[in-house]
Design goal:
0% helix, globular, S1 motif domain-containing protein, Ribosomal_protein_S1, nucleic acid binding, NA-bd_OB-fold, S1_domain
Length: 39
């Protein structure tokens, strides 16, 4: 797998409402994501 840096919008972090993304992930955490759009 490739290691890339990108942006994960707060609305895509969880199915639940997230007020503060730091409640879910911390800076430097590695997360698995699915790329749904490339700009």
């Amino acid at each position: 797998l490739y290691h890339l840096t990108g942006l994960l919008h707060i609305s895509e972090v969880s199915w639940d409402l997230v007020q503060d993304v730091r409640d879910v992930v911390s800076e430097g955490d590695e997360v698995r994501v699915k790329v749904i759009h490339i700009d």
